Amino acid sequence: xxxxxxxxxEFQIAIMLLTRxxxxxxxxxxxxxxxxxxxxPFVGPVVGGLVCLIYAxxxxxxxxxxxxxxIAFSGLVLMTGGLHxxxxxxxxxxxxxxxxxxxxxxxxxxxxxxxxxxLALICTAGLWTASVSTMNENLNWSMWIFVxxxxxxxxxxAAIFLPPARSEGLGQSxxxxxxxxxxxxxxxxxILLALCGLEGLAVFIxxxxxxxxxxxxxxxxxxxxxxxxxxxxxxSSETVGWVVLAxx
Length: 248
Fold this sequence. Notes:
Blueprint: H1 3-18, H2 33-36, H3 43-60, H4 65-80, H5 83-97, H6 101-109, H7 115-133, H8 141-161, H9 170-173, H10 183-222, H11 227-247
Helix pairs in contact: 3-4, 3-8, 4-7, 5-6, 5-7, 5-11, 7-11, 8-10, 8-11, 10-11
């Protein structure tokens, strides 16, 4: 397989894993997730651009910003299959209800959702939609793409640099990745930062602090990252990014 075809296949894997969007058929053997992890942040411009469009259309049709924000939020959930939301709920349940590492991991593996998970989802949905609705019609496409991309950049960094908490699962699948895989997405983030200016830098710093906090907490409580931890890093950092923009 040529280098270009391999990279395309890895990007297809990233689209298939992180969204429900059509990614085409793989023309050869599917690459491993540890090889495709570099492409996770590059899903951000696709998702961010589409969610921004979903937000803009109701506004143009006369909907209020709050209704448009809820429609955009619903589109995000459908587009991603609720993957990161499920991770956030499991993470909140596990760390909120488990007395030790083994019990926390057991709760996180359970498909049922508890009170901590429900509350985490309610708070996240409320903050996300309330913050996005403050933008009204002042749509900045580069900022939309930047926030969504940066959240997946931090998720990828957590997958690479945190030890896996389990010997199997999505977190373990990234254990073969190295920091060099962040180089392409670092370039993408720098370009988007240049387009967004100082406002984008403030958002990026806030998102980074939240991602670091979640990662540190997960390491102390369960020994590293799992797929649920990665989903929590992505969704919590994205939500905080919108909150910081709302403060501006």
